[in-house]
Structure formats: C-alpha cells, structure tokens
DNA sequence: GCAGGTTCCTTCGGTCGCTGAACTAACATG
DNA sequence: CATGTTAGTTCAGCGACCGAAGGAACCTGC
C-alpha cells in the first residue's frame, strides 16, 4: 500500500546506472560484454553508460582478457580511489573514526576514549569532527574526495532528522545530525551501530548474497538487523530490530530495561556473568566470559538454550535464509557452541523454516561497526544520481 | 542486495499505470485533475493514460462535479463490473467459494462441508472447481470475465509452485496449483489463508493506509501477517508469520506442535479452554470461550498477559505503526479486554516503538478469508501489464 | 445573450533513454 | 595477409514523460 513514486524516463537511467555500478562493485571486474549479460541491459546501453562512468572517473579499466580468437575484452571496475568513506563507531567506551577507500581498505584510523558516564553529545560530536580531520590528514586525502561520513551510534536513530534516543548514553532526542552539520558540510549518514554492522556482514561478511537474513549482535546489549527482500528493515519509527528486549520467559529475570524475562537478561554479557556468579564490577569481561564458557556449566547450557529459543523465534516469524551471529559475546558463544545452538534452534522451530535457514557466525569480527557505518556511505554512492562531479584524479 | 531488474522505458509506463489504477481504486472516484495531483504525473500523462483505460473499459466515468466558475470535473473510477474475483477459503471444516465484483461486493457464495479428517487434496480440489462453476452460474457471469481465483489454505504455500504443506490436513507437499490447473484455465493465486485475510484487513479493514503493520490472527491456531514497507512479507520459503509457535515461556506448556512454551499453547482457543478446565471435546467452543472471558478469572488475566507479551515482542522487533487483532478468539478477547491488552503491551515493550504503534481490532470479522483470497486477484489486476484484453461490456 | 473569466482537459513538439542492427576495432590462425 | 571471431560503438527508431499552448465547458455580470 505504500504508494510507489511516479516514474519518469530519467528514473530508468538512474536505476540502471545504479544496478550496473552495483554489479561492478560486488562482482567486478567485468568487461562490458559481461555487464551486458549480468545486468540484462543491451550492449549499446552498457557502452554509453560505462562511457559516462569512465569519463567521471568512477570506473577505470582493469586490464584485458584474451578471448579465443577475437578482440580481447577490456575489464572494468569501480575506481577504488574515486572517493573515500569515513566510518564512525560511537560506543560506550570510545569514539573510533576510520577512513576507507572504495574497496573498503582501511587508510587511517583514530580512537578517542570516553570516560564512563561522560557521553555529552557535544563531546561526542567534537571527537567525531576531530577524528575526521585526523584521518584525512594522516592519509593525505583532501576533504573533497570524501563521499560521506557514516556514523553508527547506540540506540534509536530517527530517519530523516538523525535525532538519537540512546538510553545507555542518557540521550533522549539528541539532534546529532544538526550538531555535526553545523561544523562540517560532508554528507552524513547516521544509523544504529548494530544495524550498520549488520549491513557490513550482509555486504562483505557472512551475509553475501542473502536477500532475507537476520544478523544478531550479542555483546553487552543484544540487537538484530532484519533484512527483508534485500533491504534493511527499519520499521515505522526506525526502531525495528530491538530483539534484546523480546520476552522469552514471561515474568522472568529482571532486565536493565525495567522489564522481565528479556532475552538480553539471559544472554547479554553482563547477564551471563551475573548468572555464573562472576562479579561484573572489575574489568576483563571478555576473559571471564571465555572462562565461563569453557566451564560448560549449567549456566552455559542455559545460555545456549535461551539463545537458541530466541533464534528459533526469529526463524519461525521471519523465515530467513541465513542467520548470522555477531558481536563479541555472540562470536565467543558461537565459536565454542555453534552445533549446540543449532540443535536448540532445530528443537524449537518449525521444520520447514528451519530447513530453509542456515545459522553461521559473523566473519568481520566484533569490531566492524565503523566499517558498517562506512557502508552507509557506499550504499548512497552506488545509488546516487548521475551528477556533475569534480573529475577524479586518483 | 536483491539486485533490481533491468528497467526500460516501458516499465515506466507499467509502473505509472499501476500507480494510477491503484489510486483510482482506493481513493476514487477522482477527476483527471485530482489524479494528476495524487500521482504526481503531469496532466498530459494522466489524460493519455486514462484515455487508454477508458477505452479498455477498466475505468468508467462517474458523474461530474461543479468547479466554481470553470469547466466541471469529470469523475473517473474503476469499473466495478470490468471483471470479477473469486475467493476460496479452505478451512478445516469447509471449503467456501465466494464471487466478488471489483468493488468487493459479494455476488454469489457456496459452501461445502468437510468431514473431520477427510481432507484429501483431490476432494478439496473438486469442491473448489465445483464451487467456481456454481458461483458463476448463480451470478450469471461468464468465466471469461473472471480475473482470477484466489485460494486461502492452511499451512505453508511455496510461492511459484503453489505446493502446500499443511500439517492440520496431513498435506505434505501437495501440488494444489497443478491439481487445479489441470481442470481450469483461470489464473490461480494460492496463499496461506491467514496471510490472505491479513491482506484483506490491510486493504479494506483496519489496516488501510498502514505501510508497516502486523495483523495477528487468533483462532484455533495463531498466526501473523507481517507487512513491511507496504508489502506482505513472505520470507525465503514463504513461511514467515508463524507467530503462534514463537516461544514466550522457555520450557513452558506443551504445544500440539511438539514444542513447549509456544504462544499458541497459551492463547489459542483450545489452550484457553483447557487452561480454564473446560472440555474441548464437545462442540460450542465459541460459547464456552465467551463464558470464560466473561468470568475474568485468573486464566483470562494470564491469557491477556501472554497475548500482550507476544504483541510487545512484535512491537520491539518490527516497530509497526499498527497492530491489528483478528480471528474469532482475537476478536472476542479484544472486544472484552482491549485496554488491558494495551496495558500489558505497554509494560513489556520499549517506550519509543510502543508510542509509534496503535493496537486495534480487525474490522472484517472472523470470516474474511475468502475475501482476503480475492484480494490476491485484485492485487494482480492492479499491477497487471496493460495488455490487449476483451473489451468489457458490463 | 454575450463578453470575459475560470477551471478542466487535450494536443503537440521536445527531450531522454533503451534497443536492434549495422558497423568498426582488435585480436588469432593458417 | 586473408579470413574468422569476438568486443565494443554508432545510429536511427520507438516509447514515455513533460511543458506549453490551445480547446472545451462551465459561471458571472451586465
């Protein structure tokens, strides 16, 4: 019922250009001939379109391939130096800023520590702005070549306004977009950090090629990215994916959200440690958790049970083709206990959807939020309108 | 990542035509001028497009409206007699076939009882085929004027092949599509009955205008239709929406699916009655349930609690703008206890997504599966390619 | 009853984008 | 070096939208 937009003949061009660029980005390098086959566009159209992209410096030649007996095919690919994407990870303990080229190779990186309970929006904004300056000068790249800045933050981000609600930071309606735009003219893309990271796994990690997937992120908090028909699902007010506070034990263990029986109250980092009787006051959660998991105690068994039930609910409700487990707790759990987790999911989901889904671990490690944030920039780059731009020289 | 299709200039036409037809269908009657405003298309384009639709008999004039001081506007609307849609409800106790015109006015109807445990696919197919004949001859409408037959069945329907897996019927891989197509050349659209009914509520009931909604259906079984960005979500193997077997009490009450703690094991019709100590052997569940609900016993309180928790999980995970409660149990529960249900949802969901969602009752009653199935036909009609067709005479 | 005003609708030329077909380019082979 | 093969380009044609200009159908006031 969402009424589609009016289309005009120019939208055809934009859509086809985006498709071709996408193909080249994910499946490249490819010859014009290959592209014609991959996209379904006629050779003529591919030719004129690549001509434009080559002229803009967005696409470059990448060698030749002999073709038996005929003119060799010229390979094309997206120019990795056409532009750069900055990704920012705003987390509880730090603000990290990373600079990537279009191939997602990291070119520079800087991190600012945040003191506990010192998350003033202005401070965070300052770190972000400073970080942008630093990574650019470290890599020797002028700001004009930056396609945009993606920012992954905790909490809920209102789309359009970039207003943030983050309980963990005490942020309630922080206009981070406006705050930053006052001091920089770079295009900004703000989204929830878990969703950004989910998109990274989807594009470059274990999710490649999946149109229906769920990427769950288990760390101190618990979240999920729901990918429906190829697109990240945001819901009506951008808060879709709050998986951590779904109830799996009606009237169960109290959660820091104020509710009871939340998934996070069983499989979040703090919850596991508490249930294992380990103090969560001192540092070194990761080592402690590793130790707890190795113990294979009943707490571990229960954790697997709860995680499996939570995942089974996703399998039943959403029928994804792939479930990707990420986050540092998720990866520790998965590395130690993936077969057991799968068994619990099988026992608690319907046979048909279970058979259609595979459960795998994330491939990008627990620290891919900045990378994920940068993919927000790439996404925009791939869809962008063919516009007049400064020609690239890189 | 689902790569979009290649587009050509003709797709523009098709998309715009579909949009215009959709607008006329849901918001009509409207003048050409109105349509220009509503669709964003230029007056010129609307004029040529409506010209074609009028010529095909798909659209007809519907009176005039004076416009102060100028030429009166001619109203247009979809010709309700251009074609007809047949909807079939295949349920445990009956096969019901209904004939609708394009305005969804029922023109004829026939029902065949099914004996318990007599659900042979051939028998059901026979009833469907016979029903089609009967409603057409009752209404005096030739088969050529039927745009298609929508069929709502229990269980999971594989999209594309129309193969059905329905545990309740003992159907495991029944090729219902092929079975029927052997005896009729009418276009067939098979889908899960709950999803079909969900689409009916979305289009004509309480869901009008919602792009992100969940329609939950509570009867003997419990299911949900997830609507994401305007489209019913099916998942990778068409089984999305199996909400009834999500676990809300880890290790809880045994369910007929073999699992434990399923939502259906608490709020399904049978589950409520059993928990209230009412025998489910004899008939008259509806009266019994009404009595149980009126008692406001602790069982009723618990039922509200479980339903609320289940809905709260949907609110958190999917962030819908509207949740619609349907099905005969759902409607009974909602009529008696909607405020209490809302309170439980509020207590068990996050504030931000809860505030963004409204929880309402279905408006089409508990028996709208055939209507919903017919909407599958309408959907196709609205999107169809402008093709050469027999001109309408109705 | 008619000139002028207003609003709705249609017609027409212009532009844009895709396509098939013809054509050119660049190689291998004998 | 003639021939064959494959890759890529150019060009005329078609379909779709749009803006602008023109026509249609009504109202108002004199």
Automatic annotation (TrEMBL), chains A, B:
Q: What's one Pfam family here?
A: ROK
The record's listing under InterPro entries reads: ATPase_NBD, ROK, WH-like_DNA-bd_sf, WH_DNA-bd_sf
Report TM segments: none
Gene3D superfamilies registered for this protein in UniProt: 3.30.420.40, Winged helix-like DNA-binding domain superfamily/Winged helix DNA-binding domain
Q: Which domain of life is it from?
A: Bacteria
- Family assignment from sequence similarity: Belongs to the ROK (NagC/XylR) family.
**What protein is this chain from?**
ROK family transcriptional regulator
Report the source organism: Sphaerisporangium flaviroseum
Lineage, highest ranks first: Bacteria, Bacillati, Actinomycetota, Actinomycetes, Streptosporangiales
